[in-house]
Amino acid sequence: MAGSIADGQRRGRRRGELTVGTIARLAGVSKPTVSKVLNGRAGVASDTRQRVEALLREHGYRRPDAIAPAALLEVVFYGLERHMAVEIMRGIEPVAREHELAVAFTEVVEPTPPGRSWAEQLLARHPLGVVAVHSAFTPEQHALLAASAIPLVALDPSGEPLHAIPSVGATNWSGGIAVARHLLDLGHRRIGVVGGPPDSLGARARLEGCRAALDAAGVRLDDRLVRTGEFTFEHGRDLGRELLERPDRPTAVLCGNDLQALGVYAAAWRLGLRVPHDLSVVGFDDIDNTRWCCPPMTTVRQPLAEMGATAARMLITLAGGGVLDQPRVELATALVVRESTAPPA
Amino acid sequence: MAGSIADGQRRGRRRGELTVGTIARLAGVSKPTVSKVLNGRAGVASDTRQRVEALLREHGYRRPDAIAPAALLEVVFYGLERHMAVEIMRGIEPVAREHELAVAFTEVVEPTPPGRSWAEQLLARHPLGVVAVHSAFTPEQHALLAASAIPLVALDPSGEPLHAIPSVGATNWSGGIAVARHLLDLGHRRIGVVGGPPDSLGARARLEGCRAALDAAGVRLDDRLVRTGEFTFEHGRDLGRELLERPDRPTAVLCGNDLQALGVYAAAWRLGLRVPHDLSVVGFDDIDNTRWCCPPMTTVRQPLAEMGATAARMLITLAGGGVLDQPRVELATALVVRESTAPPA
């Protein structure tokens, strides 16, 4: 299997004999402009950069001095998703091992520590590919990845579809629908929402899926019972308290993720409300903690390990010079009914 | 800083000019025996192997054909400790990045998947060093590590002091004492224990520290209230239920780790007992979950990230040809008082 990757790389280099001049002609720009994009330098308009990058990718361009890739698959995490990191790593790692690749782990921290940045160090290692978990590369870094022909796949548990690169996500919208239907079936009509950040398209998809299912059942989501905030325990707790202290408090609260739902558990506990007797609570993600809380949590499962494995397989295909069947893969979410939901009292 | 490591490696190679013959003479064995140890082959008595390995380490022997190490620090996890893995990784990673090293992640899974084993693959990558988190290398693998002059440091959150290699742990014994004194101060006298596995020396240290503090206060730990099991939520729940269903149930339960304590929370919840009003519960480790449960958990903090950083620094010292101040480092544990402990009702 390692052999097939090496073969692919050789194919990649052959295709890489395409010159800077050809790319410049195809893009309708000057050769120095293509060089600027290749070297990640500033001074190129954003749409020009994107056009050049797309051509570099399309033609599998590799710099003549490109170094053979290390047998290394890099995984870059953005701090926010750390409670999911192990599950994702354990999906990626067996696939990498099968192909005799090491898996390197980077966590992006802010502010950036002194010295060469994580991205510069990563690029200098010439990995076979990079899985970016909800993490942001700058346009310059994207250009360097493209120029080194290092494939990049976005793994995005919060559902933000990233730019023009291949990505793996889960069906957030249908997850929202499944949860809303479950609460409707139990008889809930006054439903509150503690949603994820409004600038997260994944959080929006969950919320809007829920709203659509309620609409279809003739139940209007009351905007006064909808709150949004960060995907954290603390935001869940504080927003949950706001909802639960209202005289017309909801009989059920849908949350943007499991951490927010644990926060709503804590808010209910402080107010002396019992889950599910006084309040049903539903999470999203199905992290380990959903089985360790009291009561065990009803939630929507995101198949994080499978998402990691899928991203790794996509990278290995790309690194081998192959073409992906589809640039965006969404794995199915599934409602997991435990004990935090019951008919309203 | 990367320069200093490279320099150290050169020093290592110079010292490595020591021959197999010299090692054989020093060990009082034949040259073929030294070769067997170097190549990880069988047919060498265990004490002979240990003596030869010690000499190889002591003299920084490297095989003439040894490959220059990759700028890679490997971290190997044994499945059990996965809820701690992210915290450990985030301690190791900044130290590695400062030295421009990638951090590779391996999780040991059983049964071993087909193909080259994780250990063979890891050794073939020639990393600068290996942090083994509660994971077991066979004598053959140890020999290969020694022969490749790949330094190994054990990071052991469950406190088992591993063989003759450098290691990092935490002060489990004093943690046990701190917890017991806290419960005594609150007025508890009928104290139950849900401890970790009896074959884990770290679990034993926690339990015996607790027993010593109780003895010193003239309070005898009632053996009928002591249970031991795996470091899991499920074992904590089942053993906790055994204790809580007794007519003379304890007023407080000390647990071997936080997952077991979350299990005791669940057992109490099923029986309609309130923490801390009807029962005090204390964990050990201070994983994230201790802040997300109701009530927030009193526990003993193990500084996992600092332990990871320490292990990484030890490896970098060893890889640079340096000598460790001490082969075993124990970082301090600290009692963290939250809301799961109160005076007995």
TrEMBL record, chains A, B:
Ranges for domain HTH lacI-type: 23-73
GO molecular function annotation: DNA-binding transcription factor activity; transcription cis-regulatory region binding
Alphabetized SMART domains for the sequence: HTH_LACI
InterPro entries reported in the protein's UniProt record: HTH_LacI (IPR000843), LacI/GalR-like_sensor (IPR046335), Lambda_DNA-bd_dom_sf (IPR010982), Peripla_BP_I (IPR028082)
Pfam families found in the cross-reference section: LacI, Peripla_BP_3
Keywords: DNA-binding, Transcription, Transcription regulation
Signal peptide start and end residues: none
Superkingdom per UniProt: Bacteria
Protein's recorded name: LacI family transcriptional regulator
